[in-house]
Structures are given as structure tokens and as C-alpha cells.
Amino acid sequence: MAVAEEHMMILRQGVPAWNRFMRAHAYEVRAVFRGANLAVMDLTNAVMNGADFEGANLRGAILNGGTFQRANFNRAILTNLRAESARFLDSNFIGTNFERAHLDDSSHGAVCCR
């Protein structure tokens, strides 16, 4: 099974299952969601440090309170995204669509956007 498929299977079990997986494998695994369809998925309080969302569809997804430090969102679709109080420190957003995204109280230090 490909890494991206395995990560999607775990994520579909819910954020608590995902966060348990990441705590157990934080130094071994980089979450891969390249090109994945995560539209309208509720990822509230998810820990996604270092995750690769390049080209992923997160349209209408909920990332409230999540941690996405050093994540790659290059060319991702974040239209209508809700990410209040999420942390995106040192993340990349080159070519990312933020149309109608809600990022109130989120942290964006040292973010790369073009």
C-alpha cells in the first residue's frame, strides 16, 4: 500500500486516530496527502506537522485549532477553508488558492507565499 493511501485510511478514522498515529510515529513519518481530496473534511485539532498537501483539495475543510507547522500547501485548493486558531508556522503556500478562506486568529510566522 502506498504511503498516501495508508495515511488517508488512518485519517478517515478521525482526528483522534490520526493524532495517535502521529504521536507514535512523529520522527519516522512525513504525512503525504499530495493531490488528495480532503474537501469538507473536519480536521479540527489535527496534528499535521511537516505534512505534504501539495495540490490537495481542501475546499471547505475545517482545520480549526490544527497544527500544520512546516507543512507544504503549494498549489493546494483552500477555497472556503475554515482554519481559525490553526498554526501554520514555517509552511509553504506557493500558488495556493485562499479564496473565501477563514483564517481568524491563526499563526502564519515565516510562511512562504507567492
Structure description:
It is a single chain. The chain is mainly α and 114 residues long. The protein has one domain: Pectate Lyase C-like (3 Solenoid), CATH 2.160.20. The protein contains two helices and two strands. The chain has helices at residues 3-12, 15-25, and strands at residues 92-93, 112-113. Strands 1-2 form a two-stranded parallel ribbon. Helix 1 packs across helix 2. The longest helix is centred in the first third of the chain and has 11 residues, at 15-25. The model has no long low-confidence stretch (mean pLDDT 90).
Brief overview:
The chain is mainly alpha-helical and 114 residues long.
Mean pLDDT: 90
| Terminal residue distance | 34 Å
Report the β-strand fraction as a percent range. under 5%
Number of strands: 2
Radius of gyration: 13 Å
Q: Main beta sheet, described?
A: 2 strands, parallel
Oligomer: single chain
CATH level 1 class label: Mainly Beta
- In what order do the strands lie side by side in the largest sheet? 1-2
Proportion of helical residues: 10-25%
Tally the helices: what do you get? 2
State the fourth-level CATH superfamily: E3 ubiquitin-protein ligase SopA
Shape: globular
Domain count: the total is 1
**CATH architecture term:** 3 Solenoid
- Uncertain segments are none
- By secondary-structure content and strand pairing, the structural class works out as mainly alpha
The CATH topology comes to: Pectate Lyase C-like
